[in-house]
């Protein structure tokens, strides 16, 4: 008969949800690499940020902004946090607030996808919808007004240095590690610009020759997650010198690419991610022996109600 040991087992270490933010997979595109790209010796890699717990690249700055604010004594559990968001940051902040015990108020334009709004509410966040005509600019102004009225603390992803810091400390090092230092080009959609600014800083420190390419929407295009801000609303965290090249992508090209990624690569990506992929593939036709990485900001299931994917 087996005897039970009287020796006390060492306590196991279990991860928390915060522990599994980051270290997302880096995968190689296969079927979409045209012969002329392969002939040039180029590799195109996708950083799967949709694998984060709340489903996007914004998980990184969301937890970073709250943690750092706690460390400075700016906020404490039970406080009300306010943020203007086009979707992914709001979802990530709603998750982070739930984890760390904050009331979260999110302000977003009314025309953004219903999946995003439902997900925010699932995490317990309160939503304030603003007129479509006002865009994100109106939402940002309202958030600042609410803070002045004493209704909570705005984390302000657009001006908060803890946003790009998260990418300097995690995204950049992961890309350098996972490519063995062979990355030559980094492509990112530009919204709040935290991802491209922080990642650029790290990569440029490792190798100043790494090219940083930002994807922006062409005139008249509305691509969730990609913005070209009016001068008065330019994110304060943005550093123009961190970006070597800006490439315009149309809404139709981004949406077509989203469908193509799903059909040909089995990669169900969001529209801004597809826009970055479109830029990466265009770039791959003009360079040689390059390792090009683009950010898959989120997953495609966040956009089902938009009609981008066939019913």
UniProtKB/TrEMBL annotation:
Top-level taxon of origin: Bacteria
InterPro entries linked to this entry: Cys_synth (IPR005856), Cys_Synth/Cystath_Beta-Synth (IPR050214), CysM (IPR005858), P-phosphate_BS (IPR001216), TrpB-like_PALP (IPR001926), TrpB-like_PALP_sf (IPR036052)
Functional pathway: Amino-acid biosynthesis; L-cysteine biosynthesis; L-cysteine from L-serine: step 2/2
Gene3D superfamilies found in the cross-reference section: 3.40.50.1100
This protein's record includes keyword Lipid metabolism: no
Domain Tryptophan synthase beta chain-like PALP, first and last residues per copy: 18-298
Listed cofactors: pyridoxal 5'-phosphate
Reactions mediated catalytically: O-acetyl-L-serine + hydrogen sulfide = L-cysteine + acetate
Keywords for the protein's UniProt record, in alphabetical order: Amino-acid biosynthesis, Cysteine biosynthesis, Pyridoxal phosphate, Transferase
Keyword Amino-acid biosynthesis annotated: yes
E.C. numbers: 2.5.1.47
Single GO molecular function: cysteine synthase activity
PANTHER family noted in UniProt: CYSTATHIONINE BETA-SYNTHASE
Family label: Belongs to the cysteine synthase/cystathionine beta-synthase family.
Protein name: Cysteine synthase
Species for this entry: Roseateles koreensis
Name of the encoding gene: cysM
């Amino acid at each position: 008969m087996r005897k039970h040991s009287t020796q006390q087992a060492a306590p196991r270490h279990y991860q928390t949800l915060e522990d599994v933010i980051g270290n997302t997979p880096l995968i190689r595109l296969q079927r979409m690499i045209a012969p002329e790209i392969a002939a040039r010796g180029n590799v195109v890699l996708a950083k799967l940020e949709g694998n984060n717990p709340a489903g996007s690249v914004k998980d990184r700055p969301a937890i970073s902004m709250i943690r750092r604010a706690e460390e400075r004594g700016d906020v404490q559990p039970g406080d009300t946090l306010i943020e203007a968001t086009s979707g992914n940051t709001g979802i990530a902040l709603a998750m982070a607030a739930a984890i760390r015990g904050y009331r979260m108020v999110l302000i977003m334009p009314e025309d953004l996808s219903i999946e995003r709004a439902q997900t925010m509410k699932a995490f317990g966040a309160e939503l304030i919808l603003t007129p479509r005509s006002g865009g994100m600019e109106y939402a940002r102004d309202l958030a600042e007004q609410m803070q002045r009225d004493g209704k909570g603390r705005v984390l302000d992803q657009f001006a908060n240095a803890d946003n790009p810091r998260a990418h300097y400390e995690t995204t950049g090092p992961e890309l350098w590690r996972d490519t063995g230092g062979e990355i030559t080009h980094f492509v990112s959609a530009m919204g709040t610009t935290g991802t491209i600014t922080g990642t650029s800083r790290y990569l440029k420190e490792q190798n100043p020759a790494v090219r940083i390419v930002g994807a922006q929407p062409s005139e008249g295009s509305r691509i969730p997650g990609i913005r070209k801000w009016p001068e008065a609303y330019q994110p304060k965290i943005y550093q123009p010198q961190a970006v070597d090249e800006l490439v315009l992508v149309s809404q139709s090209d981004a949406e077509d690419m989203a469908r193509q990624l799903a059909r040909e690569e089995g990669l169900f990506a969001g529209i801004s991610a597809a826009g970055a992929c479109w830029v990466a593939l265009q770039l791959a036709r003009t360079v040689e022996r390059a390792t090009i990485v683009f950010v898959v900001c989120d997953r495609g299931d966040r956009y089902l109600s938009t009609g981008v994917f066939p019913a």
